[in-house]
Amino acid sequence: QEFLMPAFKPDSTYVMRLLEQLRRELEGYHRKIDEIERLRYLEDPILLPAHEKPTGLEVRIGLSAELIENVKAALTANRPRISFRPHRTGDAATTNASKREKFWSNFIRWISYPVPVLSELADAEIGLGIGVIKASYVPWPSDQRRRRSKESDKDYLDRQTALKKHWGPPFGLVTVHPLSYFFRPGVGNRISESVEHSWKSKLEVYGQFEISSDEDLKARNVPALSGQPEQFVRPLPQGTDTSTLALVTEYFNPNDYQIYVNSKRLYEEENPAVAYFIATGRTSSSKDPDKWGQSIAEILRPNEPIINRTLTRMAEGAELLVRKRL
Fold first, then answer.
1. Cβ distance 54 to 316 under 8 Å?
2. pTM for this one?
3. What CA–CA distance (Å, rounded) separates 47 from 126?
4. Are 174 and 134 in contact (CB under 8 A)?
5. 55 with 295: CB under 8 angstroms?
6. Residues 297, 127: contact at Cβ < 8 Å?
7. pLDDT tier at 2, thresholds 50, 70, 90
8. Which residue in 25, 84, 152, 326 has the fewest CB atoms around it within 10 Å?
9. How far apart are the first and last CA of the chain?
């Protein structure tokens, strides 16, 4: 993957300029995603003048939401099955394949609680046109892995086995909202570099980096946290207070990973233990960035607002007619 590496080592200026460039390139695509989400959660504006809505009624039919949920339910009804076919023959190869199947089957089950990560990925892929997963290596707690005084080999190994079963695999897996993810396809349509830019919990971020205040910025670990998209395309959800959040920018290419908190670089890692994976929805041969991946509800995106507006007009007319007769 060396050919995917930028020709120079990215610095903070490069990362911030790249973010601005990718914002512009993907703005149309991200606005489509925002429109789909508004339709899905019945939050799309009914574009009627005030004099045509005297009673304030608004009708939303929810076609996009129903279509997306039905398809997602069909795809996620059963947990994925893991199967390994060994390249070599013999009992050792078969045993190795069985162990791998068992490990990854347990991993699939483990990442489904408390948040169903794969279901979230399918939801974004089907509903928004692109799903993004970030995987990172999160080592087991080192203090509990130390041998206790006068602890025998058998007791130590037994305790470590129990702890590892309790902790689960040493990986963090979270979904990234597509509006927080800015990517650049490279050779063979592989993602050559990307920037994740989102609001994340200040308590969690500062705790991961051992930061006691906004002035104390020292990196010690890589966070595996989900974030809230910034306000470039749409405002933050109602009730969200940025005073409790930190603006985190994460630059990634296959050979370098950097983390910026409030525009200050805190962490850099070569040969990173972090990786991003994307799953696209409906694809086409178009090279337009706005058509990278399409939602299954794309056909409803321009039409459902018209249906909602028409139904609202009808509801307003019926309401006024009833009031007039009364």
1. yes
2. 0.81
3. 27
4. yes
5. no
6. yes
7. very low
8. 326
9. 75
- Quick check: 11 and 256 in contact, CB under 8 A? no
Give pLDDT, residue 209. 67
Residues 6+ apart with CB under 8 A from 80: 108, 118
Q: Do residues 269 and 228 make contact, with C-beta atoms less than 8 angstroms apart?
A: no
Q: Label residue 178 exposed, middle or buried (CB < 10 Å: 0-12, 13-18, 19+).
A: buried
Distance CA 228, CA 210 (A): 22
Residue 252 in contact with residue 15, Cβ under 8 Å?
Answer: no
Integer Cα distance of 161 and 143 in angstroms: 15
Which residues partner with 8 through β-bridges? none
Which amino acid, residue 129?
Answer: G
Six-digit token string for 153: 């080999």
Cα–Cα distance measured from residue 179 to residue 154, given in angstroms and rounded to the nearest whole number: 50
Q: Would you mind telling me the total number of residues written for the chain in this entry? A: 326
- Residue with structure tokens 């592989």? 190
Cβ(300)–Cβ(64) below 8 Å = yes
* 246 neighbors 205 (Cβ within 8 angstroms): yes
Q: What is the pLDDT of residues 276-303, one digit of tens each?
A: 999 999 988 888 888 888 999 999 999 9
Contact 128, 178 (CB under 8 A): yes
